[in-house]
Structures are given as C-alpha cells and as structure tokens.
Write a structure and sequence with these properties.
The protein is globular. The longest helix is centred in the C-terminal third of the chain and has 18 residues. The strands form eight sheets. The chain has a six-stranded mixed sheet with strand order 17-16-18-19-20-22. The two termini are 42 Å apart. Helix 6 links the parallel strand 7 and strand 8. Helix 3 packs across helix 4 and helix 6 runs parallel beside helix 7. The protein is an alpha/beta fold. Pathway: Cofactor biosynthesis; adenosylcobalamin biosynthesis. GO terms for molecular function: methyltransferase activity. It comes from Paenibacillus konkukensis.
C-alpha cells in the first residue's frame, strides 16, 4: 500500500477558519504529526489517529518521521498553523524527500493544503494594513543567520514595504526585535503605525495598535505577529489602514472613475508611473513594430535609426563640424528614458569652439546645463558632455578644459546612469594623441532605454579628426564603450570602437562605478558583499583521537588547526570530542586529511555515540576490542534523539558510564548493563542496573538489538530513558518505576 503525505495549514487556529479540505485531510489521516500546541488546537477534529507530537525547534525531526511513516505505507498528516508553505512544514518535508532521492512519479504522494497565514489573519483584525506591497520576515535565527535577516529588514525598510514580522521574540531570543526596531527607525518615522496581534482568532487573542517608537513597550512573543506600516499607512478610528497607492489614482466619491483603463500609466494622467511604449494607432497587437513619434525623427535615415527593445528610445542629433568655423569639434547629446536632446550649432557661438551639455532624466524632466564659452579656452577647442540619468539619480561628469590639451583637440564624454548606479567614463587627454585628434566615449544605461546616435563621417569635418560613437543599452544593462587612443591613428583620423557583448560591457561599466566608490567587485561583477546571499555550505563533524585514546599529538593539532582555518571553528564538548565546523564545498578533502592523521571522525546531531574511557591509558585494556566493535557497528547511526553509550573498563566506572543512556561496565571479565540514564536536567539519574555478568561474546549483539528497536519504535526526539519507560521492556530487561521527586518548574519554563 502506497503512503501519502498531507501537509496541512489549518489557519490561525479557530475551527471556523479551517478550510473544508483541511478538515477532510485530518479526518482521513492515520497519523498526525505536529508541534504540541498545534495538536492541542485541532484536538476536537481528532478521532483514533496515532499522534506524534514534539516540542519547539524540532521541525526537522517531524519532517523525517512523517516521510518514514509515509514510506511505510501510512497516510500521514503534518500540521502547521497558518499556511504550511509560509514558514511551515511544506518546505522541510520536501527537503527530506529530496535528500532521499524522491520523485513525484515513483515516490509517496504529497498534497499541500493551504491555510490562512498569520499576515492575513492579523491584518483582518487590525483593519487593512496590507493593501500595498508587503513582505514577511521571520526574526528567528534558528535556521537563518542573523546578519542576513538584518540585511533583509534594512532592504525592506528602505523600499518602504509594509512588513509582517513572524517569530519576533522568544524566551531566549530577545535582541532580534530590538535590533529590528533600530534598523527601521533609520528609515521610517517614529510615528509609523504598528499593529501587534497575539494569538489571532484563538482564545487568548490580543490586539494592540501602537507606533514604531513605542512598539517594544508591549508584549511580543512567539505567538505574536507584528505588522509595520509604510509611509502612507494611517490610523483611523482605531483601525490601521494602508491606501491602495501613494498617489490618488481614483476618486472615491465619483460613480464613474475619471481615468479610463486606456488612460492609466499615461504621463499626463499618472506622472509617477514608468513611461510606457507608444502603441501604433488602430493596432492592438504586441507583435507590431512600434511607431515612434519623437522630435527630430524626420532628420534620420532609416538605417541610422536605432530602436531599443525595452522601455524608451532616445534620438540624438550631432551637427556637422563643417558648420562650425574655427576648429573641429564634436558634439554628442545623449538622453535616457525617451527624452530627445538637440545639440546647438557651434556657428552660433563666436570664437569657434562650443560647449554643449544636455541632460535628460526619466520622468519627463529635462535639464539643460550650460558650460562656459570655448573662448575662455586657448586653442579654440571644444568640449561636449552629454549626461543622462534615470530613476532619479543624477550623474556628474567632469570634462577638463581643452586649453590643457595642445593642438586644439576635443573630448566628448557621454554618460548615463540607471536605477541608482552612476557610471563614470574617463576620457584620456588629447595631448597624448598627436595630430589633434579627438576621442568620444559614450556610455548609457537607462533601465531598458535604447539610444540611437547618428554617426558623422570624419571626412565631413575640416580642421581635425573626430569620432562619433553610437550607444545603446537595453533591459537595465549599462554599456561602457572604450575608445582607443587617437595617437595610434596618425593624421587625426577617426577612432573605431570595438564591440563587446552587452553582458560584458554592462559588467565593465558596473565595475567602473564600484571602483570609483571604493567598492571591490568580483570577476563575475557581483559586489564582494553579495556572497552572503548565496547559500554557504558548512561542514560539521565530530573529531576525536580514537575510541580509547584521549590524547592528541602535536602534529594532529597542527593539522586540525590548518583544516579549520580562520573561517572555521572548533568547539570543546564534554563527550570526548571536538565539534569542527568548516565552510567548504569539498568535505572529502577535509575528512581524508584528518583520517590520514589518525583521527576518529563521526557525524553530529541525533546519532549514536560510543563514549569509552581511557582504560587507564591502556593498562586495563581487556574491554577495548568490544568498545571498538561497538563503534564500528553503531557509531554514527541515526536515532530518534542523541544516544550515548558509555563503556568503562573497570568497576570504578570513573568515566561515568552508568550516567549515560546505555551504560556498560567491564567487571570480572564480564559486563554489567545499565539502561535509561537521564543525562540532563535537575532530576538527572543513573541508568537502571538491568543485568550483571553478560558474557563478552553476547555484549555487542545485545546492544545492537536494543539500539535497533529504539530506532524503529522510538518517536522523533524521544530520549532513550523515556522510550524505555514507554515500552516497559527491552530484550527481556524490564523498566522499573523509580521514586519520583517533586521539583518545582524553573522560572524560565525549561
């Protein structure tokens, strides 16, 4: 019989908010697996199903147990509050299945049943705070590094998202919510509305409406969802309301809205919106060519017109240098996001030289910048600078005076920036170019803007060579074009520009920007800090000198330090092991080096571990072979909860074997066995003595059978002493009830 996994989100917890399909799935399941509180919330829907319940932070073991039971042919329900796909169990179950090589066609069937997430249930109690762009961020750093969480909070705060905070605080995690408030106050007003909802739609529901400044004055815990408004969120009559938009694009008191669908996103109606393509009249096909209607369009030959494929087209017209008496000049105008710039004729400027600076920015604003007359520059040279910025970022371009360049040459630099990245292009001095030639470097990036530049022939420009560079960038790529030195071309001829792929040019441009800001970038163009958003592999293992050996050699320690390096860590444990954590994608290299030095390596977590004594440095070594055999057969086996098997080589038991889950003491050439030691807690106790005088040849077999039964019948995260108490008997050894001491619970709840 094929098993099935039902991953159920049952909503906030009240029965009326559980979907019909979620109820059906719970009823048809044979096994229910969930966190203790969640099982209690749906107890009214349970009948005779087997219940497997665990505590907080034990999500992985729940997922593993669910898969194991489903593979055994059972129909298993894994329950989550809210939606199982939002910080719930759905992803973890799939991760466990992926590790086991599961496939949809041949593996157990999986059904995800959606529920109402906390952001939605909490928002409904507060009013309508999530009416605009919003995000959810969990403040639990149990599975996610805090540094990454903090960066996400900062990014969401900068972008003015409505933010829903999940898992904001627990008994041990108290600083995260404080740090989050500090980050948010860097970008938002202290009066920003904040809603705090505890146990939404449950018996102890509690709703508080406050602000960002005072939010920490209120009770916030693991059952709380915190919703932080954006810049437009307001409070009205005790309700937290976020408007549909930052601009009033609708009229609430009108029966007929003033903006028809075809008027939306037009600049004259909604100036804040990204400028759209102009559709040809009478055509509703996306595949038709676009009919551009830009100033100066009739001046272009068909083969000279460049049309971009993303957001806007820029037409640039360069006037002929022959119309400019007194010297050769190059004027380049550049525009981004649909703005057209026209260069004025140098003939209108006495003195021969001209400076034309045109700047266009997205959003309909065009800025004209006037530079000083070329007459102020000896030699009659001219400088033309075109600058475009899109997205509100202004780009400053500094052009050196042509007077500093003997020969009267000219330099033209065009620069455009998109989003918020400004691209700097440096033009080399014409003095380095014999013959008075000139270099024009054009660069543009406009978030999808296409730029068309009409190149002029150098032969049409008397008095000096010139270069015109056509540039285009599409789809948010910034294109940097580098022109070679004119000195390589004697006689003042023109400079040709080699083409490169758009991706290469974009990365080069962004690297130039980063370097100008002192930011180092990697070879792939990513900022150095971008690596923290990549998944990093941390290899964890337990390292010891051996089963009975407790001494490290100097060479071993040197090798271990070299393997761990500066980025890894070593953690001492009281279990005769060091826990080593190393960032690496090649664990085989690490294990081979450590094994070559004689280390005993073992996995960590919920595995079986043999803890042997040092056998008085080998003087009492009769039991060492049995310890090594147990290590070979049981060491590292996955078990429901970490299992420690203590083995001491004499009746002194000075290494405390009797305190472990399974204790073995070698005495009078035979073994005594202790089961069910409680290793932690204020009521910790030694194991029960269940057998004396076990023959050595029977020991390993007996321990194997006990451990295998614990693996097959133990519940996830069920400690061995609880398992022994529940099953009552193991290999003929019966559990005995011990006197129970009444110990008052600790204040912290542990």
């Amino acid at each position: 019989m094929a098993g099935k996994l039902l991953i159920i989100g049952f909503g906030p917890g009240s029965f009326e908010h559980i979907t019909k399909r979620a109820r059906e799935a719970i009823e048809e399941s044979e096994v229910i697996i969930g966190y203790n509180t969640y099982v209690d919330l749906i107890r009214g829907l349970l009948t005779d199903q087997e219940i497997v319940r665990t505590g907080m932070t034990e999500e992985v073991s729940r997922a593993q147990e669910a898969v194991r039971q489903a593979e055994a042919g059972k129909k298993v329900a894994v329950i989550s509050s809210g939606d199982a796909g939002v910080y719930g169990m759905a992803g973890l179950v799939y991760e466990v299945l992926m590790e086991k090589g599961w496939s949809r066609s041949g593996g157990v069937e999986v059904e995800i049943i959606p529920g109402i997430s906390a952001i939605n249930s909490s928002a409904s109690l507060l009013g309508a705070p999530v009416m605009h762009d919003a995000c959810t961020i969990s403040l639990s750093d149990h599975l996610t590094p805090w540094e990454l969480i903090a960066r996400r909070v900062e990014a969401a705060a900068q972008a003015d998202f409505v933010i829903a905070l999940y898992n904001p605080r627990s008994g041990r995690r108290t600083r995260q919510i404080v740090e989050t408030q500090r980050i948010l106050l860097k970008y938002r007003s202290p009066e920003t509305p904040v809603g705090i909802v505890k146990s939404a739609y449950r018996d102890r529901q509690h709703v508080v409406l406050t602000n960002l400044r005072d939010m920490l004055d209120h009770d916030i815990g693991m059952l709380t969802t915190v919703i932080i408004g954006n810049a437009s969120t307001t409070v009205y009559d005790g309700l937290m309301i976020t408007p549909r938009g930052y601009q009033r694009k609708y009229t609430l008191n009108a029966d007929v809205q003033p903006l028809k669908p075809h008027q939306r996103l037009k600049e004259e109606a909604e100036p804040w919106a990204l400028r759209q393509w102009d559709e040809p009249s009478g055509s509703d096909s996306d595949d038709e060519d676009w009919d551009w209607d830009e100033p100066g369009e009739s001046d272009w030959d068909e083969e000279d017109a460049g049309v971009g494929a993303s957001a806007a087209a820029t037409a640039v017209s360069a006037e002929r240098a022959s119309e400019r008496p007194g010297g050769g000049s190059v004027s380049v105008a550049e525009a981004s996001a649909g703005a057209a710039v026209s260069a004025e004729r140098a003939g209108e400027r006495p003195g021969g030289g001209s400076v034309s600076v045109a700047e266009a920015s997205a959003g309909g604003a065009v800025t004209a910048v006037s530079a000083g007359r070329a007459g102020e520059r000896p030699g009659g040279g001219s400088v033309s600078v075109a600058e475009a910025s899109a997205g509100g970022a202004a780009t400053a371009v500094s052009a050196e005076r042509a007077g500093e360049r003997p020969g009267g040459g000219s330099v033209s630099v065009a620069e455009a920036s998109a989003g918020a990245a400004a691209t700097a292009v440096s033009a080399e001095r014409a003095s380095e170019r014999p013959g008075g030639g000139s270099v024009s470097v054009a660069e543009a990036s406009a978030g999808g803007a296409a730029t068309a530049v009409r190149p002029e022939r150098a032969g049409e420009r008397p008095g000096g060579g010139s270069v015109s560079v056509a540039e285009a960038s599409a789809g948010a790529a910034a294109t940097a074009v580098s022109a070679g030195r004119a000195s390589e071309r004697l006689g003042g001829g023109s400079v040709s520009v080699a083409e490169a792929s758009p991706l290469q040019l974009a990365l080069q441009a962004l690297q130039l920007v980063d370097r100008s800001r002192g930011i180092e970038t990697a070879a792939d163009g990513l900022p150095a800090g971008a690596g923290m958003f990549r998944q990093q592999s941390i290899f964890e293992l337990a390292v010891s000198p051996g089963v009975a050996e407790k001494r490290f050699t100097a060479k071993q320690m040197i090798t271990l330090a070299d393997v761990v390096g500066e980025k890894g860590s070593m953690e001492y444990t009281p279990h005769h092991q060091l826990i080593v954590r190393v960032p690496t994608d090649n664990p085989d290299e690490i294990t081979s080096r450590l094994r070559a030095e004689g280390f005993l390596l073992a996995p960590i977590g919920d595995v079986a571990q043999l803890k042997a004594c040092d056998f008085c440095n080998g003087d009492k070594g009769d039991a060492i072979p049995y310890a090594e055999e147990l290590q070979r057969k049981l060491g590292g086996l996955n078990v429901p909860k970490e299992l420690r098997i203590g083995l001491n080589g004499c009746g002194m038991a000075c290494y405390g074997a009797v305190q472990e889950d399974i204790g073995i003491v070698y005495r009078k050439q035979k073994f005594d066995l202790f089961l069910g030691g409680k290793t932690v807690g204020r009521n910790a106790h030694p194991g029960q003595p269940v057998a004396e005088g076990i023959e050595p040849e029977q020991l390993v077999e007996t321990i194997e059978r006990i451990v295998q039964r614990y693996i097959s019948e133990g519940h996830p995260n069920e400690r061995f002493h609880k398992f022994f108490k529940r099953v009552k008997e193991l290999e003929g050894y019966r559990h005995q009830e011990l006197p129970v001491f009444q110990i008052e619970n600790a204040v912290c709840g542990d």
